[in-house]
TrEMBL record:
PANTHER family: TRANSPOSASE INSF FOR INSERTION SEQUENCE IS3B-RELATED, TRANSPOSASE INSO FOR INSERTION SEQUENCE ELEMENT IS911B-RELATED. Residues 106-270 form the Integrase catalytic domain. It holds the Pfam family rve. GO terms for molecular function: nucleic acid binding. InterPro entries: HTH-like_dom, Integrase_cat-core, RNaseH-like_sf, RNaseH_sf, Transpos_IS3, Transposase_IS3/IS150/IS904. It comes from Paenibacillus curdlanolyticus YK9. It comes from the Bacteria. This is Integrase catalytic region. One of its GO terms (biological process) is DNA integration. Involved in the transposition of the insertion sequence.
Length: 274
């Protein structure tokens, strides 16, 4: 009976001995799973994502109930702080590409649209900058680089990492803001050599590149602001590598991907395609 109902023998005898109600026993089991998922994801999941994980385990439960149990357990997901450093210098006379993306963030296939951006990473005694490239279909961070400057070399490094990993076919749309790094002669030449089509946001409109902006916001909420300030560039790189490659790309579920991680979503896409 325990095997069929997926209940541990010890749990059954504990219930039988204490004669607790089925409702109280169910809550006890649900609370254990909530605590597990919260800790397993380093306190980064709130009620919405934990509810999704519980439903994948076969539990019928509402987000409201999960939120209530989390408050009883004093479990609260990471909360971000408002802090912004300007990383876009659009005051230049470089050529500007048209806004081909035009806030159309729904892409049907991987390696059709990439979005790119730079963000500031706090570090003790120095300033660090992270350049990231995201596949708009899978939400995977396909390339990234961290350094103590935000020159064209930084974004070129992120691009090389992405291109080497994915080797996309010609015709991919590469969308970014109007920063000097992305409008530079070197970067434009690289896009052309790889058969990519440049697209750029309108001046001062962050919504035109909302998905990659959102990723940087999530990264700061779930990693940067929940940890002590990095003591060195090497420490920052190590922690960012763990977060991006192991957690965000391979483990963190996304509601827009049907509560799959980016890597899981891509694998499922190619499995269905074959």
């Amino acid at each position: 009976m325990c095997q069929v109902l997926r209940v541990s023998r010890s749990g059954y005898y504990k219930w039988k001995t204490k004669k607790i109600s089925s409702q109280a026993y169910r809550k006890e089991q649900v609370v254990k799973r909530i605590s597990y998922h919260f800790k397993d994801n380093s306190g980064r999941y709130g009620a919405l994502k934990i509810t999704a994980k519980l439903r994948l385990e076969g539990l019928t439960i509402s987000e409201r109930t999960v939120g209530k149990y989390m408050r009883e357990l004093k479990l609260r997901a990471c909360v971000s702080r408002k802090f912004r450093v300007t990383t876009t210098d659009s005051n230049h006379d470089h050529p500007i590409a048209p806004n081909l993306l035009n806030q159309n963030f729904k892409v049907s296939q991987p390696n059709k649209v990439w979005v790119a951006d730079i963000t500031y990473i706090p570090c003790k005694g120095q300033k660090l900058y992270l350049a990231s490239i995201m596949d708009l279909c899978t939400r995977e961070i396909v390339g990234w680089r961290l350094d103590n400057h935000m020159t064209t070399e930084l974004v070129m490094g992120a691009f090389e990492a992405a291109y080497t990993t994915k080797m996309p076919k010609e015709g991919l749309i590469h969308h970014s803001d109007r920063g000097t790094q992305y409008t530079s002669k070197e970067y434009r030449a690289k896009l052309k050599a790889c058969g990519m089509i440049a697209s750029m946001s309108r001046r001062g409109n962050c919504y035109d590149n909302a998905c990659i902006e959102s990723f940087h916001s999530i990264l700061k909420k779930e990693l940067i602001y929940c940890s002590p300030k990095f003591k060195s560039q090497q420490e920052a790189y190590t922690e960012l590598y763990r977060y991006i490659e192991f957690f965000y790309n391979r483990k963190r579920i996304h509601s827009s991907l049907g509560y799959l991680s980016p890597v899981q979503f891509e694998l499922q896409f190619y499995k269905k395609a074959s």
